[in-house]
Amino acid sequence: MKFGILVNEGPYQHQAGDSAYLFCKAALAKGHEIHRVFFYHDGVNNSSRLTEPPQDDRNVVARWSKLAADHGVDLVVCVAAALRRGIKDENLAPGFRISGLGQLVESAIGADRLVVFGD
Amino acid sequence: MAEGTTRKVMFVNRTAPYGTVYALESLEVVLITAAFDQDVSLAFIGDGVWQLKKGQQTKGIETKNFSPTYRALEGYDIEKLYVEREALAERGLAPEDLVVDVTVLPARELGALMDGQDVILSF
Amino acid sequence: MLHIVNKSHLERSALDACLRIATGGTLLLIEDGVYAALAGTPGEAKLRDAMARFKVCALAPDLEARGVADRVMEGVALVDYGGFVDLVASHPTCQSWL
């Protein structure tokens, strides 16, 4: 089955990004496909390559990048939300791309299920 | 899902405007979805009904007043706006207090409408 | 439909809104939403009533993280993230009550 995922909250502030990631990992382990993860609102902060958590904490951004590298998951950051929050191509972590809201709508109507993680 | 398939997409709005960004950014997705030729509807539940309150004046908080956009939705062929009856009553609101014409439904009827959707987007 | 609630019922209205509006189906409690699944609290009756209309599940890792996995009321099914995925896959639609 093809899942679309929407992440509406930023890393380290809210559990939404962690829940979304663990859901994706479990879905892939079961042989499902993650069609796309779309990052919106403060969720765009999941994509900053400037993120440097303390060593004993999980690296949320690197975890997403690895998911993209290992499974070809399409990580899309909303352009309008990103520019408002200082996320640009130059500070985007590997595996992420910046695009429009149309990518979210396409995922919502093109995937078998859309699961929303937020506040 | 094949190209060109029309799906029933409902936007569920449960947050008041201005205190957080969700109402505004939800509306931005609604406008984009209009271009995809889907069967779009909006549900306003709980504090979400405050998004539609007439007379919003946002100059004093130096933020854009986006409530006129709800009136523009008709031009995008988005005409299915549902409001929870209980939410209006709890907030001392009547349909006349809202910037657009809406269909007011009891909570459980709104729930039945949700059951018939293909996709639900909530922010 | 699968209804997902991620807020504490004592702080936010997400669970109340879901129970007021949703016609039935499955209710999955995740993140701070799991506190609603605890036995021996005044809120227990509310969820007990909901069980007439909903199959109620809670995400075990979230219960464990919060130190309350041993307090879950009877009738609540515990799932892990794989079970969460199965619930989404087995219901034609899901709604997050954010």
Describe the structure.
The complex is a heterotrimer of chains A (119), B (123) and C (98). By secondary structure, chain A is an alpha/beta fold. Chain A has a single domain (2-30, 37-112), classed as Hypothetical Protein Ychn, Chain: A (3-Layer(aba) Sandwich), CATH 3.40.1260.10. Chain A contains four helices and five strands, in the order E-H-E-H-E-H-E-H-E. Chain A has a five-stranded parallel beta sheet with strand order 4-3-2-1-5, with helices on both faces. In chain A, strand 2, helix 2 (60-71) and strand 3 form a beta-alpha-beta unit. The mean pLDDT of chain A is 97. Chain B has 123 residues and is an alpha/beta fold. Chain B has one domain (8-122): DsrEFH-like (Hypothetical Protein Ychn, Chain: A, 3-Layer(aba) Sandwich), CATH 3.40.1260.10. Helix content of chain B is 27%, strand content 20%. Chain B has four helices and five strands. Chain B has helices at residues 22-34, 68-72, 85-90, 107-115; strands spanning 8-13, 39-44, 80-84, 103-105, 119-122. Chain B has a five-stranded parallel beta sheet. In chain B, helix 3 links the parallel strand 3 and strand 4 (103-105). By secondary structure, chain C is of the alpha/beta class. Chain C has one domain (2-96): 3-Layer(aba) Sandwich (Hypothetical Protein Ychn, Chain: A). Chain C contains four helices and five strands. Chain C starts with a strand and ends with a strand. The model of chain C has no long low-confidence stretch (mean pLDDT 96). Chains in contact: A-B, A-C, B-C.
Quick gist of this model?
The complex is a heterotrimer of chains A (119), B (123) and C (98). With 119 residues, chain A is of the alpha/beta class. In chain A, 34% of the residues lie in helices and 22% in strands.
